[in-house]
Design brief:
19 helices, single chain, globular, 6-stranded mixed sheet, about 475 residues, 5-stranded mixed sheet, alpha+beta
Length: about 475
């Protein structure tokens, strides 16, 4: 059974500016800038809402006019303590609103709320039990976020919310031709290693795939398995290893062809070569035994105990494992080595952690205003301070000094962006049944008995079935 925790904060009679300033130790308020570049019209509640809301203004672009506001969030690896601070920012500016945030370990309890047309005003769709947002958008159950993106930013009303964000947010949150998701976190994937162990052994992090295989053989000869990852959650190996390897071999257009269900997309040379490369991990026995039955926490714990040297995990690793990191362990994030050194720094770094506003939200203005507060510089810095997560707020972390691991993540992202922008692979969110099958095939390739031809055929068959299934809404990019 999933765990739910509901935090309700009644509306307060007056804000307390000093509390949020002292929280981050900031001595002065952020500049307010000049006139808004684009003040939006009001974004009121669901379709049946009779309230016209408060008058809109630069300071209240959505016409927030009290009432109750509810949000539903996944409480998983990163935790959601940072939302307490965002809630405080929101309530100081909108004390007339009563706020309720439900924290859950499984988002599947949201589905009946959509069926009953009683969804929360806002939800974050990441973690266990996440919903099929493609279907929700196709069925017009999600609100457009264009008004939010065009509103004055929280910190500087002279620029819009969209202008205050790093590139990629709109692309990541668009389904069809409508922006429905707000992805606020930079979900970069890395190959992690312990720099202290490598220094002690005299090993250097390789830049090319051949160097990686050579070092893996050396590591195995030293009595440590080179690779660990979770076999229970196939997306870790797919997004952390297979996706970037394919892109480094054949370019990112290879995944665009897969996304667009092009004929024979899974038979492309780059996917074949990548499959042959990762199969070597199995045939050369470079993978820690037992990972097929390991969760992400179990595999990460084994890696922290030096049972393996490399592990593919997202930027959230340090926060998720902070209580288990041994003293002296130097978490270091780097991009997956590439066949050609020129692409060695390229790594998936997509906006993630998507927030959505249901079309039937009873207090859409408050939902938009909460998201505006979430995208403030203070909220972004607080989130990074508590979770070591890089946010999509432009420049928020430029002068922020956190852990050494956090620095390796930001450096890795900067190097990757200097090579080329990473285009989010979309089929894993567009076609859930297809990605379930292709990931199962990938795990069978690296941990089971499937060969390359069997892997390619299995993936292509599912892609063909998806393409010809008229019941599945198709997307292109």
């Amino acid at each position: 059974m999933s765990t739910l925790r509901t935090d309700v904060r009644p509306a307060r009679s007056a804000p307390h500016p000093s509390s949020r300033r002292s929280f981050l130790g900031l001595a002065a308020a952020l500049g307010t800038g000049g006139l808004s570049a684009c003040a939006t019209g009001g974004a009121h509640g669901g379709a049946d809402s009779e309230s016209s809301g408060a008058p809109t203004s630069q300071d209240n672009p959505f016409g927030v006019d009290g009432g109750e506001f509810s949000a539903f969030v996944f409480d998983g690896g990163d935790g959601v303590k940072h939302l307490d601070f965002t809630q405080e920012l929101f309530e100081e500016k909108r004390p007339e609103v009563t706020t309720k945030i439900v924290r859950a370990e499984d988002l599947s309890t949201l589905q009946p709320q959509f069926v009953n047309q009683t969804p929360p005003d806002l939800f974050q769709n990441s973690g266990a039990g996440s919903l099929d947002v493609n279907s929700l958008a196709t069925n017009q159950q999600l609100a457009s976020l264009d008004d939010l993106m065009a509103a004055p930013s929280w910190d500087d009303p002279s620029i819009t919310v969209e202008e205050s964000l790093n590139p990629g947010v709109r692309e990541a949150g668009t389904v069809g031709d409508q922006l429905v998701g707000l992805n606020t976190t930079q979900y970069a994937w890395a190959i992690w290693h312990d720099a202290a162990l490598f220094a002690d052994k005299g090993w250097e992090m390789p830049r090319t795939w051949d160097e990686l295989m050579a070092l893996s053989a050396t590591i195995k000869a030293d009595g440590i398995y080179p690779w660990a990852f979770t076999g229970m959650h196939a997306n870790y190996f797919e997004q952390g290893v297979f996706q970037p390897l394919v892109a480094k071999i054949g370019g990112q257009e290879v995944w665009r062809n897969v996304d667009n269900l092009e004929d024979g997309a899974w038979q492309q040379d780059a996917i074949r070569e990548a499959a042959e490369a990762v199969l070597q991990l199995r045939t050369d026995e470079l993978i820690l035994p037992g990972v097929a039955q390991m969760t992400h926490i179990q595999s990460q714990t084994s890696w922290l105990h030096h049972e393996a040297a490399f592990i593919p995990v997202g930027a959230w690793l340090e926060n998720e494992m902070k209580s288990a990191i041994p003293e002296g362990f130097e978490l270091t994030a780097t991009a997956l080595p590439a066949p050609e050194e020129s692409l060695a720094d390229l790594t998936p770094n997509n906006p993630g952690g998507g927030w959505y506003v249901p079309a039937d939200a009873s207090n859409r203005p408050a939902a938009f205003e909460f998201l505006r507060a979430l995208l403030s510089r203070e909220s972004a810095q607080n989130s990074a301070e508590l979770t070591n997560a890089v946010t999509m707020v432009k420049g928020a972390h430029d002068d922020q000094e956190l852990s050494p691991a956090f620095s390796t993540i930001t450096t890795m992202i900067e190097k990757s962006n200097a090579v080329e922008a990473w285009a989010p692979v979309k089929y894993d969110s567009w076609y859930p049944s297809m990605v379930e099958e292709t990931r199962a095939a990938l795990i069978k390739l690296v941990l089971g008995d499937l060969d390359v031809e069997g892997f390619l055929s299995r993936c292509q068959k599912k892609a063909d079935e998806t393409k010809t299934d008229d019941a599945i809404a198709k997307q292109t990019r």
